Amino acid sequence: MVHEQHEEIFRSGSKTYYFSSRFFPQYVREDVYALYGFVRVADNLVDDIPVDPDKFKTFRALYSEGLLTGQPTGDHIIDAFLELQERKNFDPLWTEAFLDSMQHDLVSTSCDTLDETLTYIYGSAEVIGLFMARIMDLPEESFQAAAMLGRAMQYINFIRDIEEDNMLGRRYLPLGETSLRGLTKEDALAQKEEFKRFIRQEIARYSQWQREAEKGYHYIPRRYRIPIMTAADMYCWTARQIAKDPMIVFDKRVKPAKFRILRKGLAHTLGMAFGC
User: Rounded to an integer, what distance in angstroms lies between the CA atom of residue 91 and that of residue 81?
Assistant: First the structure.
């Protein structure tokens, strides 16, 4: 029952990650579901409209209590994560960084510098890469690349979700290297060529981080590498679609279809596809 709850949260929260994860062995997949259940529930609590800060604070306090006492909290999502954290030797500071980034969304509406963005990304995405490295029992030498993969994927999410974040009153992309006043559709239409230049510049930044992440692929056993590469390839695909026409982010949420994800995963399985 608990496993089914985790899977449903995963399926409804991220098509790319969910269908890519189907290529993991079942015992790894269940750990990935437990991880994703925890991070998705926390993320949803700060993205609800209207936002209810008390719900997130209660969630965080319950996690902290369970960590401190070692006793079940009664919350299946939190308890499964705490069991996973202990069994896979997650650094609790990674979890605190994640929760700090989620809490950031309750108190701050924008990141004005790249340093601020990267601080947020460390907690919201890089530590997810570190959790995944632990789940797959990778050596610590892989951690930098694992964190970089999380960073790269999150940055494409920021670009893809500009309009959604506008509705939440948030901005994660720093504007210091552009003359844009903001990232609303009106701002983009007023300076259309500058908006396109800016988005393509940020996609180039993502691509650099993605290339750095790929240097760590050799640390991942082949049976685990397939889902990781499949998900990464889908983010590459998303980046390419947006780069063709950056204004598309105001018209729809660019995401690969299920068949594209599964086809890429199968191609990797057969050794027919590598890279983006």
Answer: 13
In residues, how long is the chain?
276
Residues 6+ apart with CB under 8 A from 197: 178
Beta strand residue intervals within 52-206, DSSP E: none
Question: Can you give the pLDDT at residue 128?
Answer: 97
Q: In this structure, what CATH number is given to the domain that contains residue 55?
A: 1.10.600.10
Q: What's the distance, CA 162 to chain centroid? A: 15
Residue 239 domain flag: yes
Q: Which residues of the chain have pLDDT under 70?
A: 1-15, 18-19, 272-276
User: Model confidence over 218-268: pLDDT tens digits?
Assistant: 999 988 999 999 999 999 999 999 999 999 999 999 999 888 988 888 888
The structure's pTM equals 0.91
Distances (CA, A) of 110 to 8, 107, 120: 31, 10, 10
Q: Is 274 contained in some domain?
A: no
The DSSP bridge partners found for residue 43 are none
Residue 170's φ and ψ, nearest 5 degrees, are -120, 155
CA distance 172 to 161: 10
DSSP letter at 221 equals -
Residues 135, 138, 143, 145, CA torsion sign: negative
Structure tokens that stand for 85 in this block = 């954290």
Q: Report the distance separating Cα 206 and Cα 202, nearest Å.
A: 6
* Domains contained in the chain, number: 1
Classify residue 178: in a domain, yes or no. yes
Structural domain span for residue 21: 2-269
Q: How far is CA 173 from CA 27, 30, 90, 180, 205, in A?
A: 37, 33, 29, 11, 12
Which pLDDT score is estimated for 181? 93
| Any domain includes 275 | no
